[in-house]
Amino acid sequence: MILVEDLRKQFGAVQALRGVSFSAADGRITGLLGHNGAGKSTTLRILSTVVRADAGRALVDGNDCATQSLQVRRSLGVLPHASGLYAHLSGRENILYYGRLHGMPEAALASACDTLIDRLGLREVVDRRAKGYSQGERLKVGLARALIHGPRTVILDEPTNGLDVSAVRMLRELIRELRAAGCCVLFSSHVMQEVAALCDDIVIISHGCVVARGTPDEIRASLGTSDLEEAFVRAAEIEVVAQGDPVARDATTRPGGLA
Amino acid sequence: MMRAIRTIFFKEVLENLRDRRVVMSAFLFGVLLAPVVFALTTTLASQRMAEDQERPLVLTVVGATEAPNLMRFLQENGARIERAAFPAERAIEVVRSGLHDYVLVVAPGYAEKVQSGEPAPLQLVVDTANSRAAGTTERTRRLLQAYGSQTAALRLLVRGVSPTVVAPLEIRTVDVATPAGRSLLILGMLTYFCLMSMLVGGFYLAIDTTAGERERGSLEPLLALPVTRAQLILGKMLATSAFMATSLLLTLLAFSVSLRFVPLENLGMTSNFDARVALAIFAVMVTFVPLGAGLMTVVASFTRSNREAQTWLSVVLLIPMAPIMFAVVNGTRPTNALMAIPSLSQHLLATSLMRGDGVEPVHVAISVLTTLLLGVCLMWAAVRLYRREAILG
Q1: CATH, residue B154
Q2: Does B290 share its domain with B354?
Q3: Pairing between strand B57-62 and B102-106?
Q4: Which residue in B56, B54, B66, B57 sits closest to B120, CA to CA?
Q5: Per-residue model confidence as pLDDT tens digits over A123-146
Q6: Which residues does B265 contact at the CB level (< 8 Å), separation at least 6?
Q7: B275 and B300 share a domain?
């Protein structure tokens, strides 16, 4: 369960977040949708406790990301934007490294690692150095690494960038499995079809503000179009008009409400 | 939580040991390059010195016919006289151009002055900037003085006066330098190499674990793990320290082997560098490791990329070398105050050990305490830097 309230963040002269609020429930897949630079990554960085918000708060399972960051990090699995694997370590060593840093006992770690390796079909490549991995193999190892400690909440930052069709299909399957297991899955993307195909709830973010949120149907209805692509574009435009006008912004964020 | 630090430490060590580029640069300099360069230069220096001793003294003389007795004396004492093919006026020009290292000019009227018992004019044209000729010039000067004293003694004897009248002092120089103590410059070079190879050993790790990790995008997910940033950076600095200590140890061992093949005796040094001394020097110098690791990590943490980190760290490598250069040039001796300066104190202690002088326990205590204290301060600074958000770049 993720709860974000009025998050604000400034980097130098750039106001990255200007009051972002949304929630993501357990057992549901929530998509954070927006153009590049809209504030998706900053929001995810605050949730993963790497960056602190200037104002507002972010809670993961009731723990505050700013003041209880260690508890938050324990319950979180993060798949970063870049795979960030260590090239000179094998896939298995990469996974075990994260498991150990999560404080897992060695026996439990070894069995969890084997389970994930089998589930992701990594058995053949997992003992090779990560240097020679394909894009898809890197993603799979990255996923195994993020899920090694069995997190309740999973955050994926643009996971489908640069993947081929079969890898994307594998990823969707895995995300649905996580939902079935009761996890809270939050993932960011700038591709509408991506989010539409997978998400139970959508949060559209633009210029550091949430401009629409709700189920795909609710968003279509509120923006008066049956095409989600069109809805996305309209939502982004509305925000530009609504900038600095709290009444107009409220109007766009009302539909759907908290999921 | 020690387990996290241990996990990070072993991962960094393993990852960097597998990187051939890192291993080569970390250990090649210390283990191969430094001892080889050192052995070569000292061998050359000692050969030069041996040659200087044995080389016959070739003396170019203008106007040799004026002074047959002097020429005979010089020849009896091992000099080979060459009559100059140029006039006295050109002597300065010839020496300045390096055609001859030095020229002896017997001035016209020399014979007459000798006859009448007046000071007879001789001119030795030398170039003191020519270090190659310094030894032989000195020998020539001593020979001429000896001839002068001999002539004076003969004149006194003829007049019935004992030559001891004009020798009121009998000066005898007692050289207390131990044989190993003479070559301060060479020993300075040795500690310089040791310190350098220690820093070079940790160079790539300091960069890879900070700027490198950020550049590859692996820092962000790492910071999202339930590990404090202090644990993270401490584990990384420990790995850097391990590489530095290993590089230092290997360098000292390589030195203790390679120095057996260098004729140090020719330089007036005994090769006091057995395994026991090497280990003592290691113990003295290893206290510098936390300082070096902290310093390099702090600097690398400020930079934005691998390349930038390398540029800055190359400059940082020179900082600990400055006090050593100063000490070598000035021939500084160990004092309590100097022991409070890291890198200089390690240099002075290591030099004393190599000379076989032994070291004062107080000096060791001051050196260890100040160096470790500064090391802890720098490591603390690195931890503080990692708490900042800007560390993500």
Answers
A1: 3.40.190
A2: yes
A3: parallel
A4: B66
A5: 999 999 999 999 889 999 999 999
A6: B46, B179, B271
A7: yes
Q: What is the ipTM of this complex?
A: 0.86
Strand stretches in A88-146, DSSP E: none
Residue pairs between chains A and B whose CB atoms are closer than 8 Å: 77
pTM of the entire predicted model: 0.78
- DSSP-derived pairing of the beta strands B79-83 and B57-62: parallel
Domain A1-75+183-259, second-level architecture = 3-Layer(aba) Sandwich (3.40)
Give the domain ranges of chain A: 1-75+183-259
Please provide the distance, in angstroms rounded to a whole number, between the alpha carbons at the two ends of chain A: 11
Choose the final residue of a domain: B138, B166, B194: B166
Q: How far separated are the first and last CA of chain B, in Å rounded? A: 27
Question: Contacts of residue B219 in chain A, CB cutoff 8 Å?
Answer: 84
pLDDT in tens, B193-233: 888 889 999 999 999 888 888 888 898 899 999 999 999 99
According to DSSP, the β-strands at A153-157 and A76-79 are: parallel
Q: Minimal Cα–Cα distance from A85 to chain B, Å?
A: 6
Domain range for B95:
56-166
Q: What is the mean pLDDT of residues B81-93?
A: 85
Number of structural domains in chain B: 2
Q: Are residues B76 and B223 in the same domain?
A: no
Residue B176 lies in a domain: no
pLDDT of residue A256: 41
How far is B265 from B385, CA to CA, in rounded Å? 51
Chain B residues with CB-CB distance to A81 below 8 A: 217
Helix ranges, A5-90 (H): 40-47, 69-74
pLDDT in tens, A52-69: 999 999 999 999 999 999
- In angstroms, the CA A229 to CA A235 distance is 10
Instruction: Tell me if chain A has a CB within 8 Å of the CB of B14.
Output: yes
B159 and B198 co-located in one domain = no
B341-380 as b/e: b if 16+ CB within 10 A: bbbbbbbbbbbbbbbeeebeeebbebbbebbbebbeebbe
Q: Are residues A84 and B222, on separate chains, in Cβ contact within 8 Å? A: yes
The span from the CA of B290 to the CA of B198, in Å, is: 11
Collect all residues of chain A within an 8 Å Cβ-Cβ radius of residue B21.
none
Q: Is B52 on the interface with A (CB under 8 A)?
A: no
With contact defined as beta carbons under 8 Å apart, do A77 and A149 qualify? yes
Contact B389 A103 (CB under 8 A): no
